[in-house]
Amino acid sequence: MKKKEKFVIRGGVPLKGEVEVRGAKNATFPILAAALLTDETCVVDNVPLIEDVFKMLRILEEMGVKVSWLGKRKLSINSANIDPAKIPSKIVTLFRGSILLLGPLLARFEEVKIPTPGGCIIGARPLDTHLDAFSQLGFKYYSYPKIKSYKGKSKFYCFKKEKKDFGQEFRTISTLEKNNKSLSEVVLREFSVTATENVLLFAALSGKKIVLKIADLDYQVRELVRVLRKMGVKINEAGLHSLEIIGKKKLKGFQHSIISDPIETSTFMMMSLATKGEVIVKKAQLSFLDLFLKRLYDFGAKFKILDSETIKMLPSRNMKIDKIQSLPYPGIHSDIQPELGVLSTQTKGATLIHDPLFEGRLKYLEELNKMGADVIFCDPHRAIVHGPTELIGIDFPSPDLRAGAALITAGLIAKGKTVINNIYQIDRGYERIEERLSLLGADIKRVEDK
């Protein structure tokens, strides 16, 4: 059993120095899932050493996948002997990324039983978009038990191919005009990164042409597209938020190095701004942060982009943030919003925070109020922060992964001692973050919670 630990932070120290960004957490899961589409060996480099990745690898190993470490961050994966009947329910229910097993397993075996994935509690986060997409692809599914709680057991979803051809009950006008019976079309009911990835993973091994509409094209989706192309799949952009996938019956292995994490890049940038520090962020992933960088500039943040992978954050004392709204890419990512929320407690005037995606994403603001922030909640998706306010260190739990990182930032600027419990949530997505912050001058320690 993993021991319970907490972070103890003494704030008030501006961060200074250099920090290097690790591999992208949310790009790792679909790439590991892609390795299930082939019997050939796949090599993945720049793997982040975080709890959720370790969980995904344990799931693969329990299903018979051969996983070997070739270096500190380099993996070899061979799925020739995978057995979907051995999927470990207990681990799958612990994190959301396991939903990406669905696409490749259905592509290979056409029938799968999978428990409901877990993850951060930031809202309802139903699987409806995934279920609807696979219904369009000709799969019938049912769940059991039918009630939410059943003797403490997990709820399962069972999928089975309903007919030989893909379901085509719903078609858009553009598809009807083409009158191509060999063309299958999937229209997602909303923008969803993981649903987009699941359809891509399935389509890659379908041997058919599939057009995916309302596709989310954020960084992790584009990384998956790069990998699938290496495996021999033809993927073309077919219009606004649309992808055309020409699947094959057999795919090659691949070698791929995961991009640096755009979310972690933004985290260190905002920690520097919040502490009025001077931090150089190396191996930064800036190409997916255009709007975020533009808005920081508008807010009065000072920074210099030194090259395509390096940004220098400078002390910025007169920032003013009018509005923070998270939206699907190319909008500002919902995972970035909590850090901006903490930053807004230190800037002058009122800041409207609007996260239309997740009704639980603003819960971290309740903890900021306990620290002395002036936050008014309008509804589950909107809040107004009045600043600047002095934050006082307190003792609280980490509600979820991104909120936990944001509360570290709050602790770095707070007066006195801040204690963050349940840091397992933070370890799920940030690799030994306390060690990297300590190198920047932060007074932060990992302590066993006795």
Write the layout of secondary structure elements.
Elements (H helix, E strand, L loop, with lengths): L4 E6 L5 E5 L4 H10 L7 E4 L5 H12 L3 E4 L5 E4 L10 H4 L9 H8 L1 E5 L12 H9 L2 E6 L11 E6 L11 H6 L4 E5 L5 H12 L4 E5 L5 H12 L3 E4 L4 E5 L8 E3 L4 H13 L3 E5 L7 H10 L2 E6 L2 E5 L8 E3 L11 H8 L4 E6 L9 H7 L3 E6 L2 E6 L7 E3 L3 H13 L3 E5 L2 H4 L5 H6 L4 E6 L2
Parallel strand pairs: 2-14, 3-13, 9-10, 17-18, 21-22
Antiparallel strand pairs: 1-22, 1-23, 3-5, 4-5, 6-8, 7-8, 10-12, 11-12, 14-16, 15-16, 18-20, 19-20
Helix pairs in contact: 1-2, 1-8, 4-7, 5-7, 7-8, 9-11, 9-13, 11-13
Characterize the structure shown.
By secondary structure, the chain is of the alpha+beta class. The protein is built from 15 helices and 23 strands. The strands form 6 sheets. The chain has a 4-stranded mixed sheet. A hairpin with a 4-residue loop joins β11 and β12 (242-246). α1 packs parallel to α8, α5 (128-136) packs parallel to α7 (193-204) and α9 packs parallel to α11. It is globular. Mean pLDDT is 91; it is low at 120-124, 147-152 and 172-179.
Percent of residues in helices comes to: 25-40%
Name the CATH superfamily assignment of the largest domain. Answer: Enolpyruvate transferase domain
Measured distance between first and last alpha carbons: 14 Å
Report Rg. 22 Å
Order of the strands making up the biggest sheet: 21-22-1-23
Overall geometry comes to: globular
State the CATH topology of the largest domain.
UDP-n-acetylglucosamine1-carboxyvinyl-transferase, Chain
CATH architectural type of the largest domain: Alpha-beta prism
Mean pLDDT: 91
